[in-house]
Design a protein that fits this description.
Blueprint lengths: L1 E12 L3 H12 L5 E4 L6 H8 L6 E6 L34 H20 L4 E6 L10 H11 L20 H16 L8 E4 H7 L9 E6 L7 H7 L9 E6 L5
Parallel strand pairs: 1-2, 1-6, 1-7, 2-3, 3-4, 5-6
């Protein structure tokens, strides 16, 4: 049997104390190996107080442009924040002017700098609602990587289930090109494959895996993720046609 290295990464650490508790509980049991932190999350301080207890896990930055209040102020953000000054989630529908690109770069830098100021050793980059994979933001992502010398980044999703297949072969090709560019422009280490934990469970027995390392995304603490967490706590790897070896992003 082949061996597949798997990273189980919990997103949204710092969003609220319920999510923090759920993530740390799973980490303490060896069921989650990595997490990414929202630097502008309302429960960031609660997360920061606890991450030192989980040295066997990796902690990355969950770059954010769609929720909560930005850490920086810029007039160019007017199109992507609401009347309260919080990110509105409207990023996909906005024209990226030079001023907005500059503001996004400065915001992402501020998010990373805030985590570093608390002593967080940032293992990798991913993002809230996958904004780092938006093609028009690729150059900003690379500038951010260079600025902080971060060489590990989450790829865009490339494993799909039969009930929720990819929309088209053209989209699949675009994803392959983006992942190739991610790895080769400012040399970046990535997992071979990425998908949701729930999607992986649907297709794992039938996959002809050529992937050495797979990242699986989970969202503990959210009501909609109750089934996902239940499966995570089960012997889910028993009976798979390969041996599962859990690792964190620092081991990639």
């Amino acid at each position: 049997m082949s061996l597949i290295r798997i990273i189980i990464n919990a997103d949204d650490l710092g969003a609220n104390t319920q999510i923090n508790s759920a993530i740390f509980n799973l980490m303490s049991r060896g069921l989650v190996t990595s997490a990414t932190i929202l630097a502008n999350g309302p429960a960031l301080q609660d997360a920061i107080r606890q991450i030192g207890d989980y040295r066997a896990c990796s902690f990355g930055v969950h770059l954010n442009l769609t929720q909560y209040r930005p850490l920086t102020e810029a007039e160019a953000f007017n199109e992507i924040v609401d009347k309260n000054g919080d990110f509105s989630g409207n990023l996909q529908n906005v024209h990226l002017t030079p001023a907005l690109r500059k503001a996004i770069f400065e915001e992402w830098c501020a998010q990373i700098e805030k985590l570093e100021s608390y002593g967080v050793r940032i293992s990798h980059i991913d993002s809230h609602e996958h904004v780092h994979t938006i093609p028009h933001l690729f150059a900003i992502l690379k500038l951010t990587q260079r600025r902080f010398r971060i060489h590990r980044v989450r790829i865009t999703k490339n494993i799909y289930s039969y009930d929720l297949p990819i929309e088209s072969n053209m989209l699949l090709l675009k994803k392959k090109i983006w992942n190739f560019a991610l790895r080769n422009y400012y040399r970046t280490t990535t997992a071979s494959a990425f998908t949701e934990f729930s999607t992986f469970l649907k297709v794992a027995k039938d996959l002809q895996l050529s992937h050495g390392t797979v990242e699986l995304m989970v969202h503990p603490g959210y009501p909609h993720a109750a089934d996902e967490v239940a499966h995570l706590q089960s012997p889910w790897h028993i009976g798979l046609p390969f041996i599962v070896h859990l690792i964190n992003y620092n081991m990639l």
